[in-house]
Amino acid sequence: MFTWTNGTKKWTIRQRGCCVERLYFVSPFASERYFLRTLLTKVKGAVSFEVFRTINGVVHDTFKSACIALGLYDSDDEWNACLREVVGMQTSA
């Protein structure tokens, strides 16, 4: 909404509208930063980190769970169940 003007040392109203100029790449291995970056592209008008984590009136503990609640990513439940099942199997060499 505003830009900083060095000459006058004051905030002025943005002339070109409200937008994010640059959004840097974040590796999926960066976990919460990656999910926050994803939310930056989907949640409009957020003014705090809590707003990013609030989906349908529910404040989620992590950005990842907020992304899952928005349907942007599937949860890891299926993979965890698969790995638990594999632990119980025995193979012969």
Characterization of the model:
By secondary structure, the chain is an alpha+beta fold. It has a domain at 32-93. It has helices at 32-42, 49-53, 63-70, 77-88; strands spanning 2-5, 10-13, 54-55, 58-59. A two-stranded antiparallel ribbon has the order 1-2. A two-stranded antiparallel sheet has the order 3-4. Strand 1 (2-5) and strand 2 form a beta hairpin. The longest helix is centred in the C-terminal third of the chain and has 12 residues, at 77-88.
Question: What is this structure, in a nutshell?
Answer:
The chain has 93 residues and is α+β, with helices and mostly antiparallel strands. It has helices at 32-42, 49-53, 63-70, 77-88, and strands at residues 2-5, 10-13, 54-55, 58-59. The longest helix is centred in the last third of the chain and has 12 residues, at 77-88.
Distance between the ends: 65 Å
Largest sheet composition: 2 strands, antiparallel
Strand content: 5-15%
Number of alpha- plus pi-helical segments: 4
Which whole number gives the mean pLDDT? 81
Structural class: alpha+beta
User: H/E series, N to C?
Assistant: EEHHEEHH
Principal-axes geometry comes out as elongated
**Annotation, overall tally of beta strands:** 4
Q: Biggest sheet, strands in spatial order?
A: 1-2
Q: State the helicity in percent bands.
A: 25-40%
Low-confidence stretches: none
CA-atom Rg in angstroms:
20 Å
